[in-house]
Design goal:
It contains twelve helices and eleven strands. The protein is α/β, with parallel strands linked by helices. The chain folds into three domains: 92 residues, no CATH class; 43 residues; 190 residues, 3-Layer(aba) Sandwich (Rossmann fold). A hairpin with a 4-residue loop joins β2 and β3.
């Protein structure tokens, strides 16, 4: 007996691979969706099928079975495949069976808002039947960490291209300036002329210094000198945030003196965010921030990502406007967004 596992994007894809390699006589022993990633995220597009075939019967002699028997075997295999396909079709629905009838409406609300199915079930197991109770549980899970005095030494903003790092630098700079803080701007994005020009204009508006750093090795002498004058806001290029973190770890042996904040575009898929998150040294990340809330169609990812990263949230940005479209949210505000209201 030959037993082997096959992986496909769907059950049908995996079944096609089984038939191609083991032939039509292969027997499906089991099938399951695969859990991937350190957070145990369920990838519904990946299915593992375990199949077997009797090697002695894999290529039976011609005429060994009657035509009637062959037709019967084909019919049995067809029924078996249909049953397996039906199981895979129903698999995403099965978790909802753990949700009582009195909470089905809340479950559907969370899933529509983009909350992970397993997270939604756990939330409902911890809450009562009311929306207020559900929001209360969500509030307890969210960690908010605003600009307390100890954290006003500044931020180094990291994240994929296009998440809004430079714009966020501008918004936070105005926020700190309004609190009479002497802001110091640093750009590590020397390769992008537009980014540097934007930072120069911001420096002119706020009448604060700007340093454009081409080599990470030049950063320590600037950081330790300027941090005595006021909070540092450091912009970074999106194409190399992984390398920047690695260089900082090597150069600042005693620890980097400002908070490292990973920015997340609220309209990005959870899979894209986790891929970006896992690509860097996450142990060095102190907090997260959500940008472009105005572009998101659902807000369940705020809950998903907050739990998956286990990092406190520093702030959210709610539009392109500078300096107005930024806020340090309350857990009540975020719980309202996640459940479809305010």
């Amino acid at each position: 007996m030959k037993i082997k596992k096959f992986v496909g994007k769907s059950f049908k894809d995996a079944l096609d691979i089984v038939k191609k390699e083991l032939g039509p006589d292969a027997i499906i022993l089991s099938s399951k969706s695969i859990k991937t990633g350190p957070f145990g995220i369920l990838n519904k597009d990946a299915v593992e099928v375990t199949a077997a075939i009797d090697e002695e019967d894999a290529a039976p002699p011609a005429g060994a079975a009657s035509s009637g028997m062959e037709d019967l075997l084909k019919e049995i295999r067809g029924l078996r495949d249909e049953v397996c396909f039906l199981k895979e079709t129903l698999r995403p629905i099965v978790p909802t069976l753990r949700v009582g009838k009195d909470k089905k409406g809340l479950f559907n609300l969370l899933v529509r808002q983009g909350v992970d199915t397993q997270f939604a079930i756990i939330l409902l197991e911890r809450s009562q039947e009311s929306l207020d109770s559900l929001r209360g549980v969500i509030r307890k899970d969210l960690k908010i960490q605003g600009l307390v005095p100890a954290e006003e030494r500044g931020f180094l903003f990291l994240g994929p291209p296009g998440v809004g790092k430079t714009t966020t630098v501008s918004k936070v700079a105005h926020m700190l300036s309004a609190k009479k803080k002497s802001v110091n701007l640093i750009s590590l994005d020397a390769g992008r002329i537009g980014s540097v020009a934007y930072m120069k204009e911001l420096s002119k508006q706020l009448r604060c210094p700007l340093r454009v750093v081409k080599k990470i090795s030049d950063l320590p002498k600037i950081v330790y000198k300027e941090i005595q004058k006021g909070p540092l806001l450091i912009d970074t290029p999106g194409y190399d945030y992984t390398g920047i973190l690695d260089d900082i770890k090597d150069i600042f042996a005693s620890g980097f003196p400002v908070k490292k904040c990973f920015l997340i575009d609220s309209s990005m898929s959870v899979q894209s965010v986790i891929k970006a998150w896992q690509s860097c040294n996450v142990d060095m990340i102190d907090s997260i921030g959500f940008t472009k809330l105005d572009m998101a169609t659902q807000y369940g990812s705020i809950y998903n990502i907050s739990l998956m990263t286990s990092r406190p949230l520093s702030f959210v940005t709610t539009g392109p406007g500078v300096p107005d479209d930024i806020r340090i949210p309350t857990s009540e505000f975020l719980a309202g967004l996640i459940t479809g209201g305010i």
